Amino acid sequence: MLTLASKLKRDDGVKGSRAASAPSDSSRRVSIRDRLLVKEVAELEANLPCTCKVNFPDPNKLHYFQLTVSPDESYYQGGKFLFEVEVPEAYNMVDVVWGLNSLFTDLLNFDDPLNIEAAEHHLRDKEEYRSKVEDYIKRYAR
């Protein structure tokens, strides 16, 4: 599936047969970060929440991907939220995906909110809040 993973396997196979020859452009060594990304993608695909879908527009740039979160519970149920993610070297892509997914479930905490104005609206009038979220989903998250 992944071009980079295929390249890694090819490079490992070629390594033994060309120990003394200089590397060409087509068989340059793959960076440690690329090797880690291949492992992270495999871990991500194995542990992806059922509410998430990942798309890699460029299979040679595994640190950049599109994530679609479709919550199946909470106020945001029925919405589709698209994120374009570029993971810096200091982060694990699995943690980034789970963190974004949690914004719509686990981290939805009105006692310690990320968005104070929304939390105050929720505390003031839960039905109006629900209606506003449903309206936003219809407008922006379908």
From TrEMBL:
Gene3D superfamilies xref list: Ubiquitin Conjugating Enzyme
PROSITE patterns: UBC_2 (PS50127)
UBC core domain location: 32-142
InterPro entries (UniProt xref): UBC (IPR000608), UBQ-conjugating_enzyme/RWD (IPR016135)
Disordered: annotated segments: 1-26
Natural source organism: Engystomops pustulosus (Tungara frog)
Domain of life of the native organism: Eukaryota
Designated name of the protein: UBC core domain-containing protein
